[in-house]
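Memo to structure team: turn this sequence into structure tokens by end of day. - J.P.
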Amino acid sequence: MGKNQLLAICLAIIGFLGTILICALPAWKVTAFVGANIITSQVFWEGLWMNCVIQSTGHAQCKAYDSILALPQELQASRALICVSIAVSVVAIGLTVVGAQCTNFFHHDWHTKTNIGIAAGIVFIIAGLLCVIPVSWSAHSIITGFFNPLATEERRGELGASIYVGWVSGALLIIGGGLWCSTYRCCR
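Reply from structure team:
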């Protein structure tokens, strides 16, 4: 395995792990409420699967969403796309194992091995796009909600850490997939 293939798979695996992280963490939207007294401050975190309230005392309470049907369509779509991105990344990792130049799979047929390797890179790029789309969509929704003059103060959230991690994860999947594809030549 060449240095470029090793770098590509490392970037893609880090992107894959980041996608799992943003799927699990409830930090997509962060809303802070500070009352007349700083002691009554609360921070609300919203994620794909649950929302959490953190009191100024450090006490945190999380609750899973009650009904899938009651969730906004954007959140339902984001859940689905992030889960599909994770599944597609798993397929890409499997193709990478088969298509890597250092493995013995299809060692007698380099043309097939090259095609599988290129397919692995393309599937990583698709996984990255499937991660970036819901993250950007959610970011757009949060930003437009923040600047909406009709929104109440408690509904004005800001971008949470999962949004930033999601953008980086998607970029790493796309860059890793592109770099992986670039390690294969058209003809051998």
